[in-house]
Amino acid sequence: MARRTRSSRAWHFVLSGVRREADTRAVALATGARGWGYDSDGQHSDSDSEPEFSSLSPSIPSAIPVTGESYCNCENQSEAPYCSSLHALHRVKDCQCGEEDEYFDWVWDDLNKSTATLLSCDNRKVNFHMEYSCGTAAIRGNKELADGQHFWEIKMTSPVYGTDMMVGIGTSDVNLDKYRHTFCSLLGKDEDSWGLSYTGLLHHKGDKISFSSRFGQGSIIGVHLDTWHGTLTFFKNRKCIGVAATKLQNKKFYPMVCSTAAKSSMKVIRSCASCTSLQYLCCYRLRQLLPNYVDTLEVLPLPPGLKQVLHNKLGWVLSMNYSTSKPSSSSSGSDSDSSCGSDAEACQRKRCRRT
């Protein structure tokens, strides 16, 4: 009887150890060792931090920065500036690729931002969580995007990792400092905002769908808000991803970004606006007819003076890429969507017939 008891105790001890090890692995995989008091990106997590679980694989937060998704081939963008400790992430010199614009319709608003943000580069660059992160920080542009056409580009100037780093839009009702002690995907958490996550998920009203491949350091995320047709379109590295939202007429938005990652940063490298005129519609149509050129003006037989006027007023329209391309095999989504051109074109034709 005594032998049977000792054997039973031994088996109980072994099985308990196996269960503990399995539970530890499950917690580590699901929450990035959140049980040890840290968020998945190596940042300290407060007790009110909410876990972000999803059946979609791109949404799993990672402590390892995303690489291989840069707009350029600069050496410092292709290699992850990553050390054994996430708090030892070292900064590399920002490349200037894709930063040709000198005039900006808007910059980041120093009066409407989270406390864990710092602006630089004439308020075009926002730095999040300068030392360590304990939640989600966000900021919006200093101009309300009402009537007309609005296009801007955000460049990821730091390693991209953690619970979330997002680019999107939102109304004035979005509380930018609400989740300063919570790691979450802030943009798209309510009905007043839309956000594209670096994981490739599109967020709105608390829901998320797989929308594109991931983006990382050096990636350029473009956003086109067409308030006349009511569409929101995203671009990655100056190639169309897809139409993210429709029926946005008669609403006023602000450009927004957010991040949970310590020592992360983003930079506005383009912000343009124009009225929805016949001139704009003609340039938009010309771009669709001649999509294989870097700049449509290069091949149009126009007088130099007219070319310069169009370049200054609508150069961003004549350089947008709505063509489709095949995503790389390593990507978890598609970098382009055939709906980029077809949906927008159909919408424009419909509105033109009405007018």
Detailed description of the structure:
The protein is an alpha+beta fold. Helices cover 21% and strands 23% of the residues. The chain is built from five helices and 14 strands. The strands form two sheets. The chain has a seven-stranded antiparallel sheet, with no helix packed on it. A hairpin with a 2-residue loop joins strand 8 and strand 9. The longest helix is centred in the first third of the chain and has 30 residues. It is globular. The N and C termini lie far apart (93 Å).
| β-sheet strand percentage | 15-25%
Taking pLDDT < 50 over at least 5 consecutive residues as the criterion, the unreliable ranges are: 10-59, 79-92, 324-338, 347-355
Main beta sheet strand tally, sense and closure: 7 strands, antiparallel
Rounded mean pLDDT score = 77
Q: Structural class of the helix and strand makeup?
A: alpha+beta
In order across it, which strands form the biggest sheet? 1-4-13-6-7-8-9
Overall shape: it is globular
Give the SSE order as H and E letters.
HHEEEEEEEEEEEEEEHHH
* Helix percentage range: 10-25%
The Cα radius of gyration reads: 23 Å
Number of helices: 5
User: What is the count of β-strands?
Assistant: 14
Cα distance spanning the termini = 93 Å
